[in-house]
Each structure stands twice: as structure tokens, then as C-alpha cells.
């Protein structure tokens, strides 16, 4: 009990949950694990954004300046040179590792629903997973072309199973719980 109390205080000071610090997930439900992970994720994302926005962008800017000066990279014709618009030339979006999924199916459903409702985009949802949406889209195009070339049909059962799960999750509570007779 003393060890658990100390770990809780340490976790609070570090900005992480007790479960993440102790690696003891024995007494948590999906909802509490998700809430705990989201709280810690928000803390880590703030730190990562601070570090990436400042340190990584500055390092990239220095690297780009040197690459331009040495002729390793030939810049396109532009209205402004590197020194006149350094921040524009060095602008970058840093995507780190993705968040751990507690229940992958539920989290994918949430992402799809946010995109379909216009509350999010593929770019944002894939960035949360630590992926670049342009890389994913290009790979999907390549794989789709390969499947067609090989005469393979699209795996329709995946889409059907997904749609069935969405329909079931939207049913009222009384329809999904068995009734006692």
C-alpha cells in the first residue's frame, strides 16, 4: 500500500498515470485505461511539440542552409532566397510515434466517424497513429494497382464486417442486451 501510494505521487509529479509508471493494469477497465492514456498522451504531445517545433526545426534549418550552400540541394526558382524567407523554407511538420491503441477496433471506428462527420481529416487521424497520410495514400494506390494487375479482388469481407460492427454499435442499448424471460 505504501509503495502504491508513493508510485501514485511520483506518477502525478511526472505527468503520467500510475498504471503507466507501475505497468500495473490489473485493476483498470477499458474506459479508465483510455482516460489515463489520453491524459498522459496530452502531456507528452505538449512536450514533443515544444521540442520538435524548436529544436528539430532549428536543426533542419541549419542542415538545409548547409545543403543549399554546398550545392547538394538545388532550390527551385523562388521569389525570395533562403535568407529572406528562412522560416518559410524551413517549415516542417514533425510527426512522432503514434499513440498506443487500447482497443484498436474502437479507436479506428472513432477515427472513421470523426472523418465522416467532418470533425477531423485523414492527415490528423494518421498523424495520431504516427503515420504520414501521403505515404499511406501512395502505398494504397500502389497496392491497389498491384492487386488489379494480379487479378485479385478487393477484400470485400473487411468492409462488410466493419459496416456490420458500426450498425451494431449504433443500435439502442435495449436491442443489444439479452432480455430475461
From TrEMBL:
Naturally occurring in which organism (per UniProt): Escherichia coli O103
UniProt-listed InterPro entries: Phage_lambda_portal
GO MF entries: structural molecule activity
The name this protein goes by in its record: Phage portal protein
GO biological processes: virion assembly
Top-level taxon in the UniProt lineage: Bacteria
Amino acid at each position: 500500500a505504501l509503495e502504491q501510494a508513493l508510485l501514485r505521487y511520483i506518477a502525478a509529479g511526472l505527468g503520467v498515470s500510475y498504471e503507466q509508471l507501475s505497468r500495473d493494469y490489473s485493476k483498470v477497465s477499458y474506459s479508465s485505461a483510455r482516460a489515463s492514456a489520453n491524459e498522459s498522451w496530452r502531456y507528452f504531445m505538449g512536450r514533443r511539440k515544444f521540442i520538435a517545433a524548436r529544436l528539430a526545426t532549428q536543426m533542419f534549418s541549419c542542415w538545409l542552409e548547409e545543403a543549399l550552400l554546398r550545392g547538394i540541394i538545388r532550390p527551385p526558382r523562388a521569389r525570395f532566397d533562403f535568407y529572406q524567407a528562412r522560416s518559410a523554407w524551413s517549415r516542417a511538420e514533425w510527426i512522432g510515434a503514434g499513440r498506443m491503441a487500447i482497443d484498436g477496433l474502437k479507436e479506428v471506428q472513432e477515427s472513421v466517424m470523426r472523418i465522416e462527420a467532418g470533425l477531423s481529416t485523414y492527415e490528423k487521424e494518421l498523424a495520431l497513429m504516427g503515420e504520414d497520410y501521403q505515404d499511406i495514400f501512395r502505398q494504397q494506390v500502389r497496392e491497389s494497382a498491384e492487386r488489379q494487375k494480379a487479378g485479385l479482388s478487393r477484400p470485400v469481407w473487411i468492409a462488410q464486417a466493419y459496416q456490420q460492427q458500426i450498425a451494431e454499435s449504433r443500435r439502442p442499448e435495449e436491442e443489444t442486451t439479452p432480455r430475461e424471460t
